[in-house]
Specification:
With 716 residues, this protein is an alpha/beta fold. The chain is built from 27 helices and 26 strands. The strands form 4 sheets. Strands 3-4-2-1-5-6-7-8 form an 8-stranded mixed β-sheet, sandwiched between helices. It has an 8-stranded mixed β-sheet with strand order 19-18-17-16-15-24-25-26, with helices on both faces. The chain has a 6-stranded parallel β-sheet with strand order 11-10-9-12-13-14, sandwiched between helices. InterPro entries: Glyco_trans_1, HAD-like_sf, HAD-SF_hydro_IIB, HAD_sf, SPP-like_dom, SPS, Sucrose_P_synth_Pase-like_dom, Sucrose_synth_GT-B1.
Length: 716
């Protein structure tokens, strides 16, 4: 056994500065957000525990006339056991974290000197974010102190989001020092005894793709919630100005409130909540619906994705004639959010999070701490929250009926509502308050500080590059789906090779429909999801939409003109609204009446720059000229810097043809629609499998020795 530590001295490191005890400047820039508040509240909670003797929150000292003088103070004493320590490193002025990398070695040396000059060095260092991880690794190795790390966000994941926003690899390197950041994260993982995350999903979908990932290193401790700020109703909530502002559009404002609070983001799936409400007369009689979806002055001034969400919401409100029953306020302030939850609770209402995926679910904890029962997506963090608090109902975000049923259950059963409300308050205090977080944290780190529980590292298999070397692209219908036994084998094979191989699905279906099919057949979320016949691209782990791709394909696209030409065309019938999307017009086609070449000629004669494709002999899609599955594949390959020669493509219909032509390694799985691809039979680099569905994909991967080639490239 190691040293006995009765009262622990903990040093938390958050390098980039602008941290002080009061009046946090949250939102000043990208560096002063949730991580800043997280670290400050963690330090405060740890200092209140009897078995902690000292907490230092270490950051960079800033002496700059453009920021408050508070940040120039070397030491800020918060209480008798908690202080903020500011270390000199680099220029005195405030600079963004991406510019700090050159000065981190100096920061580490100065911090080590600071600790040496004291009577006692910390028993434990806890670094927050990649730059602090690098500093913490240096100091921990120098002084022989165990290191714990929390990443908050990871470089590999952020790179995906930046690519999706339209930045090139070169721009990302120039602006964000991404290679250096990922190197720092690898060094941190190689040094840290424990890594603390908010959810299991974070481990499985983010940390696992790092070379120095160690499963035994990871621990899940959800972040705490400030239960002094988020608290149950005090009695006057329905008499406040905010209540009147939220409900002034409602005909019967005193009904219970169904509250939703999120960004105007398609992934938040707010429209399905309006659908559930609109299709139930009983719900409309029982309650009002209040949707808080960010702030707006003019919808037309918002970015395209938010415009699309608001258009969908307003159309749904109009379709179900919900005027006077639904409120969607234009503005709110951050400090009003706790009162919004209390208003919902005081009204006897419910909080709903219908997101397609929710990695954690902080709003659910805030609602629970305010006494509001919750209804939430079964994907991700809400499963853990409701499992711990027993204060709500999980729903399938792709099936509006599950939301309707859950709302009716809660709004018609007062005893159940009271039970969930009280259990939510108890559960948050027990599992999700900062005090609960701090107590679990101390239980985790005490054996490390005592040198009694050190990590036994497993052998590593390092990849030769920071990013995947190859990729698998496959359609969904009649490719992945159709043989669940072979599908399970294929998924396991992809998982075994996930560090070197990206997994992508390219489908003609809309995002929500594709997700529903994937869920039904237990297909995990791919790294890349191309939907609506190549017009939309999403990236794991949060289904981040590629906004740059949307801007790229919105070129000479005039869907209203195409509709005028085709909606009454003999032999064509519009597919349901669920199959239409912003960049895809879909029709059923009668091949006895319609010649595709005639359709193309008509559209080109009318100067419509479009891409026309036929799938499975009966589905006609009209897309922007720059959009198709093949175009989307090449766009992704270019952004991810994966050579087309290292990409395997599996298809089974005419809509997949342009994915398979060219330099990719392609395969046509056996199915009754192979005649649509029969012209490719003699094409180089296209293999026609004997087996159908996932079995045909496995056969084709073996034909190309795809994973064997990856191992050969890796060791050569």
């Amino acid at each position: 056994m190691g040293d006995t530590v009765e009262q622990m001295y903990i040093a938390l490191i958050s390098v980039h500065g602008l941290i002080r005890a009061d009046n946090l400047e949250l939102g000043r820039d990208a560096d002063t957000g949730g991580q800043t508040l997280y670290v400050l509240e963690l330090a405060q909670a740890l200092s209140e525990l009897p078995n902690v003797s000292q907490v230092d929150l270490v950051t960079r000292r800033i002496n700059d006339s453009h920021v408050d003088a508070d940040y120039a103070e070397p030491i800020e004493v918060i209480n008798e056991k908690f202080r903020i320590v500011r270390i000199d490193a680099g220029p005195e002025e405030y600079i963004y974290k991406e510019q700090l990398w050159e000065y981190l070695d100096g920061f580490a040396d100065n911090l080590a000197d600071f600790f040496r000059k004291q009577d006692r060095i910390p028993d434990l260092i806890h670094s927050h974010y990649a730059d602090a991880g690098l500093v913490g690794s240096h100091v921990a190795n120098l002084l022989g102190i165990p290191l714990v790390h929390t990443g908050h966000s990871l470089g590999r994941v952020k790179r995906r989001r930046l690519l999706a926003s339209g930045l090139s690899t070169e721009q990302i390197e120039s602006l964000y020092n991404m290679t250096r950041r990922i190197e720092a994260e690898e060094i941190t993982l190689a040094t840290a005894e424990r890594v603390i995350t908010s959810t299991h999903q974070e481990i499985e979908e983010q940390y696992e793709i790092y070379d120095h990932y160690q499963p035994d290193q990871m621990r899940v401790i959800p972040p705490g919630t400030n239960i002094k700020q988020f608290k149950p109703p005090e009695g006057n909530e329905l008499e406040t100005d905010l209540f009147r502002k939220l409900t002034h559009q409602l005909v019967e404002p005193n009904k219970p409130i169904i509250l939703a609070l999120s960004r105007p983001d398609k992934r938040k799936n707010i429209a399905v909540l309006i659908e559930a409400y609109g299709e139930s007369e009983s719900l409309q009689q029982l309650a009002n619906l209040v949707i808080i979806a960010g702030n707006r002055d003019d919808i037309d001034d918002l970015e395209a994705g938010a415009q699309e969400v608001f258009h969908e919401l307003l159309v749904a409100i109009d379709r179900y004639d919900l005027y006077g029953k639904v409120a969607m306020p234009k503005h709110h302030k951050r400090e009003q959010v706790p009162l919004m939850y209390r208003i919902a609770a005081a009204s006897g209402g419910v909080f709903v999070n219908p997101a397609l995926t929710e990695p954690f679910g902080l709003t659910l904890i805030e609602a629970a701490a305010s006494g509001v029962p919750i209804i939430a997506t079964e994907d991700g963090g809400p499963r853990d929250i409701i499992g711990n608090c027993h204060n709500g109902i999980l729903i399938d975000p792709l099936e509006s009926s599950t939301i309707t049923d859950a709302l009716l259950k809660l709004l018609t059963d007062n005893k159940l509502w009271d039970d969930y409300s009280s259990k939510g308050l108890e559960g948050v205090a027990k599992c999700y308050s900062w005090r609960a977080h701090a107590k679990r944290y101390i239980e985790l780190v005490t054996p490390l500080a005592q040198r009694a529980e050190l990590l036994q590292r497993q052998p590593l298999e390092r990849t030769s590059h920071f990013y995947a070397e190859q990729a698998i692209f496959t359609d969904l219908d009649l490719n992945l789906i159709g043989d669940d036994v072979s599908l399970h084998k294929l998924i396991n094979l992809i998982r075994e090779n996930r560090k070197t191989t990206k997994f992508a699905i390219a489908t003609g279906r809309r995002l929500d429909v594709a997700l529903r099919m994937m869920k039904k057949h237990q297909i995990p979320e791919p790294d890349i999801l191309i939907t609506s016949s190549g017009t939309e691209i999403y990236y794991a782990p949060k289904l981040t939409p590629d906004t740059s791709w949307a801007q790229h394909i919105d070129y000479h696209w005039m869907p209203h003109k195409v509709r005028q030409l085709l909606d009454d065309y003999p032999g064509l019938q519009k597919q349901p609204k669920s199959e239409q999307s912003r960049f895809k017009l879909s029709y059923y086609i009668d091949p006895e009446q319609v010649d595709i070449e005639d359709i193309k000629r008509l559209l080109h004669q009318e100067e419509q720059s479009v891409h026309v494709q036929l799938a499975f002999g009966q589905y006609l899609d009209i897309l922007p000229i720059r959009a198709s599955k093949g175009m989307a594949l090449r766009y992704v390959a270019d952004h991810w810097q994966i050579p087309l020669e290292h990409i395997f493509v599996a298809g089974g219909s005419g809509a997949d043809e342009d994915m398979m032509r060219g330099n990719t390694l392609a395969a046509v799985v056996a199915n009754r629609h192979n005649e649509e691809l029969s012209q490719l039979i003699d094409t180089d680099r296209i293999y026609f499998a004997d087996k159908p569905f996932a079995a045909g994909i496995l056969e084709s991967l073996e034909h190309y020795q795809f994973f064997h080639q990856a191992k050969t490239k890796k060791t050569s």
